[in-house]
Specification:
By secondary structure, this protein is mainly α. The protein contains nine helices and no strands. It is globular and about 55 Å long.
């Protein structure tokens, strides 16, 4: 249950402001919400099953300590990726099937290499438990995308997207820092090294957030 909850919370945060959440919101403007969520469910079940299998397989060829360090570092990267922001690049118009299959196919390919899929791989590598992670991440995608549909369509985006991004990013980065503290050898955990590392992460987050906001401003001015 602990692994399920951790996987659920982690991927909910990863999906906030993500391209696949934007994709679900875009489809909800054209198709019924139930159809969109059904397509998301099928696509996520298949996509994240592949992700957890790959994550579990990694431990057979890479030492567990190394994987835990890499997984913790990747959580910080996910936080920075969230601050950078994401946008659709025509994924909602590439496939022409029935509404259900249009959503499912488009969502499956949009999720390939996305940070929520990579987060699922990292979780599987860290916890080595396929079923709870698979179920937790799938449930998280449904909840996050349903929330995105409500925010985007029903509430008219009254909740600031920037607030959601910062909230998710801070949780991600904190989780990554804690994971690195628990996983790194003690010789690397000197006060100067930790202070320098923390300063670097904060500075990088500020730069990435600034670049993401600038990109959003440029995009809105061109549209």
């Amino acid at each position: 249950m602990k692994i399920f909850i951790a996987s659920f919370l982690f991927v909910v945060l990863a999906e906030m402001g993500d391209k696949t959440q934007l994709l679900a919101m875009a489809f909800a403007c054209r198709y019924p919400a139930k159809t969109v969520l059904a397509g998301v469910l099928v696509a996520t079940l298949v996509n994240h099953l592949l992700a957890v299998v790959v994550g579990s397989w990694l431990t057979n060829i890479v030492p567990l300590d190394t994987i835990q360090i890499a997984a913790s570092a990747s959580f910080i990267l996910f936080g920075l990726w969230t601050l950078r922001g994401d946008r659709l690049e025509g994924e909602d118009k590439k496939f022409k099937f029935s509404p259900f299959w249009t959503v499912a196919v488009a969502f499956f390919f949009a999720e390939m290499g996305d940070k929520t899929q990579l987060a699922t791989v990292a979780l599987a590598a860290k916890y080595q438990s396929i079923l709870p992670i698979w179920m937790g991440t799938t449930a998280a995608m449904l909840v996050a995308d349903a929330f995105g549909i409500i925010v985007g369509v029903v509430l008219g985006k009254k909740i600031p997207e920037r607030f959601l991004k910062w909230f998710a990013a801070v949780i991600f980065i904190l989780f990554g820092i804690i994971g690195l503290y628990d996983s790194l050898p003690e010789r690397f955990l000197t006060p100067p090294a930790m202070a320098a590392g923390l300063f670097f992460v904060v500075a990088l987050a500020v730069v990435v957030a600034w670049q993401g906001r600038r990109r959003e401003d440029l995009s809105s001015s061109c549209s």
